[in-house]
Write the structure tokens for this entry.
Amino acid sequence: MVESAAGLPAQDKLSLREARRIALAAQGFGRPRRSGLKTRKHIDEVLGQIGLLQIDSVNVLARAHYLPLFSRLGPYNPALLDRAAWDRRRRSLFEYWGHEASLLPLALQPLLRWRMARAERGEGIYRSLAQLARERPEFIETVYREIEERGPCGAGELEAAARGTTGWWGWSDAKVAVEYLFWAGRVTTATRRGFERLYDLPERVFAPDILGQPTPSEPEAHRALLRIAGRALGVATESDLRDYFRLDAQDSKARIPELVEEGALLPVKVEGWTQPAYLDPQAAAARRIRAQSLLSPFDPLVWERDRTERLFDFRYRLEIYTPAAKRQHGYYVLPFLLGESLVGRVDLKADRQNRTLLVAAAHHEPSAKPDEVAAALSEELSVMAGWLGLDRILVAPRGDLAGPLARHHPSPIDPGPSDSGPSDPGP
């Protein structure tokens, strides 16, 4: 029998509904959105729950790192996140590879130095990136000195510097070099210009109290990251926990038994899951979830597709790279969370030039009631449009939810396929 400190009954089995409620509460959906003005404190609270924000370049609707905060907080000023991430005086986040490219709390920087060290040594997945460093270390140092002398600079400026040389280093090599330096922790993101990353030295970006913290051993760092993943997921399999910070399987499998022994993870069986699961001892036991949120494809609630299917019976795939004629649901599809279920999916695009939120397709799940889903989704789309600074919503006649949804947003206009995004960054 396991015992949770947060009100969960002592048990070694969880029903699927219990697991789903635990997971939603752990991800910040266990309470209604806050009304009124959102502050930096609210953003910090969400980051404290979910641990990181994935960054992605696709901007059809909004940049990926802005959307999880909207899903949990509702409308907020994206400049608050910009300052937390890239304002030197107000920075509380930094960029590195957490779950893919990510924004992470500065307190996690020491916990990722093992990854930087592996990258510098060219171990594992970093081997090809480090090949240039092994073959031409003097070139890596040239790129490093260029950044050291220039201060914050983008890859394009390094490209320009490459053109000014005698040709012994080229743009492709310069890009590989700066990526290697970034992975190895020798340079970091000082700020962004539009969406372009500007690199600088960590000692000119991070406060001394961050860089001065001792470096944990690899096992210590892995245990700490798995604890964070456990809190963020609530209940999870080993592969779920490992995926959150993209740990290697051998590292995760070695550390989880140690966390179980110390009581930081509690073994449980979840109804319908074939793999053993682990419960966060502090997991909240929500009796009911009343969420109503659109979720980014890169939201930590759904970014691990197998877990999404296990928890919600919701098969979800991002079809950006699928040829248009073969897409089932659309180009940039957001799941719609209503209550404690994923009940629909909408293909969205922000047409900023015409100040319009385009619904290129809308589908409901077989078990959902279309009219109920459409009414709730209409409300959420209106909130999102307002947050994005868009004046109207157009619904294309595509998908089995399009008809019910169009009754809330009637328009004879078909926005056409959503195959590309706007050029301006937006929120």
User: Anything to note?
Assistant: The chain has 17 helices and 15 strands. Confidence is low (pLDDT under 50) at residues 164-171, 412-427. The radius of gyration is 23 Å.
